[in-house]
Amino acid sequence: MSDTADLDSYYPSTCPFCTIASAFPCASSTSASTTLSSAVPSEEAADPTRVDPNAFVLLSAPEVLAFLDILPMTRGHVLVASRTHRKKVADLEGAEASEVGFWLPLLARTVAKVTGVTDYNIVQNNGPRAAQVIPHVHFHIIPRPASLPQVAHKSWTMFGRGQRDELDDEDGAKLAREMRGVLREEVGRVEGRGRGRGKL
C-alpha cells in the first residue's frame, strides 16, 4: 500500500475507540482534577452495555482508556488507548504520552496478577503496513501463558486472524471486574507512597 493510497476502505468508517471514549467519560470532566483512584470506574460507571459491541473498561483517565480486547489473543489481552483520537504515537502530545507511560506499568502488573501469567508482550502498531487495524493510538498488553514458542522461531506470532476468538460477554464482565479491583489496589499503593502522581 503506497503512502498516497486511499485508506478509507482499509479502516472502519467510525472509530470504535472514540465511541468508547465518549461513552466512558473521565471523572475530571465535572471537577478541576481527579484522583488516581477515581480513574478506575465503579461497577455502575463501567457498564459494558453503554456501547455496542460491549466494552469492558478498566480505566477511564483524563488522557488514557484501558479496556479488554474483544478479540483477545490470550485471556486478559488489554488495550491501552489515548482518549483523544490520535492515529500514531508520533501524534501524541506531551500530557497524553506521559499519562500512557504512567499507566502502562500499573496495567501490566494488573494483567499479570489477575491472569497469573508474568510474561507478556506490550505491542504498539503505527499504520496499516505495521498491522494497525484501528487508526487510533493503542498499546496491546498480551499475557503469554506457560507454553513456550516453537524452538524453530523462538518468538510468538504477534497477530493473526486464526489465533483470535471473540471475548465471551460473561467472562469479559467477570475479568474486567477483577482487573478493576486489582488496579485499584495498584493505584492505592502509588497514592499511599505519596510519590508519583496523587492527582491527574
From TrEMBL:
GO biological process, one term: nucleotide metabolic process
Gene3D superfamilies documented for this protein: HIT-like
Domain spans labelled HIT: 44-151
Molecular function terms from GO: catalytic activity
Active site feature: 138
SUPFAM superfamilies: HIT-like
Pfam family, one: HIT
Motif Histidine triad motif positions after renumbering to this chain: 136-140
InterPro entries: Histidine_triad_CS, Histidine_triad_HIT, HIT-like, HIT-like_sf
Protein name listed in UniProt: HIT domain-containing protein
